[in-house]
Structure formats: structure tokens, C-alpha cells
Amino acid sequence: MDRNSPGNYCEDTTQSIKDTEEFVQYVKSMPGWKEGLLIPAITPRFVPTCTSTLMEGLSKIAHKHDLPIQSHISENIDEVKWVQELHPDCNSYAQVYYKHGLLTNKTIMGHGVYLTSDEMDLLSKSGASISHCALSNITLNSGFMPFRVVRDSGTKVSLGTDVSGGPSPSMLEAMRHA
After folding, report:
1. Helix count (H) and strand count (E) of the chain?
2. Within 13 Å of residue 104, how many CA atoms lie on the same side as its CB?
3. Is the pLDDT of residue 18 over 90?
4. What is the pLDDT of residues 67-82, one digit of tens each?
5. For strand 156-159 and strand 69-73, is the pairing parallel, antiparallel, or unpaired?
6. 137 near 75, Cβ under 8 Å?
7. Cα dist. 13→16, 19, 50, 59 in Å?
8. C-alpha span between 35 and 77 (Å, rounded)
């Protein structure tokens, strides 16, 4: 995160990219990497807290090492509006990620409560998926992801937990509320 975050959370952009590359190299040097037991994920928190420079840098690392990408998208209406204000050159929240190379067949986006049909098409075409975090969405009063609409659009959907947004990290609890 290199913008719109508390001072002790905000990182220097260049240092963040460098640290991420070093972390990936460290994980790749560990036993279990070649067997697929340890796989780092590139995790830009979400668009409002990441500049274009940071998103592009993280995208390059993900592509260079063929890594999964995980972030958040369209969790609440105010967030969607904020993203439009920050990136008026993009038609949608999903397009911001796409423009910066962060939508791939290894991308998992949490929430997806307020996706447009164009965004679902873009996610589907890029191979990205949505992780439905029902318990978090209920707890934070974000809304309900239209599961059938998203699934029927061809977008892959999984079930997830947003640990900081819900009362439990348990997948069993997530299943009960989905």
C-alpha cells in the first residue's frame, strides 16, 4: 500500500516492489517451492491503496514468476465510486486491474458485490475469479454478491473468508452463511 492508508501502513513504492521481489526470491529458495507446497501470492490490498506504479510493479513480478494475484473488488458502493474518482481513465473497477496487468487466470478477487456485466465479462475473459466472502459481506453490511448472475456470466466463483472483515476465518462457517 502506497497511498490512502495510515502512515505506519503506507510503504515507499520503490521499496515495496523491491521487498516483494526479494520475498518471492526467498520463498523460491525454500524447500517445498519446486513441489508447489509454498507459493507466494501477489497481494495489492485494493485499488484505493495502490498507485498505478505499485500495481504495475506487482504485476511484473506476478508475470515474471507466474504467481497468483489476490485482491479485493467492488466490496461496497462507496469503494466503487472512490475507484472511479481515482481512475477516471478507466470505465470500471475491473478495468483498473486489467489496465495494470493484474487480471489473469491466476487472479482471485474477493467480494465482487457490485460488479457490472461488463466487469463480469472482463473477469471471465481474463480467467480471473471472484471469491465470495458472504460472512464478511454480511458483517460489514456490504451487500450480497449475486452468485448466480456472476456464475452464469462465465466468471469463476469460489468461497472465501475475509479474515479482517468477518467474525471467523473458518471455511466451514463461510459455507454456513453462503
Report:
1. 8, 4
2. 18
3. yes
4. 999 999 999 999 999 9
5. unpaired
6. yes
7. 5, 10, 9, 13
8. 41
144: amino acid identity, one letter: F
* Beta carbons within 8 Å of 30's beta carbon, 6+ residues apart: 38
Assess contact for 71 and 110: CB atoms under 8 A.
Answer: yes
Evaluate the CA torsion angle 48, 42, 158, 176 in order and state its sign: negative
State the cell numbers at 134: 458472504
What is the pairing mode between strands 107-111 and 129-132? Answer: parallel
At what angle are helices 52-65 and 13-28 packed, to 10 degrees? 20
Q: What is the pTM of this model?
A: 0.94
Grid cell listed for 160: 472465501
Concatenating the DSSP letter of every residue in 79-106 gives HHHHHHHH-TTSSSHHHHHHHTT--STT
d(CA 167, CA 145): 18
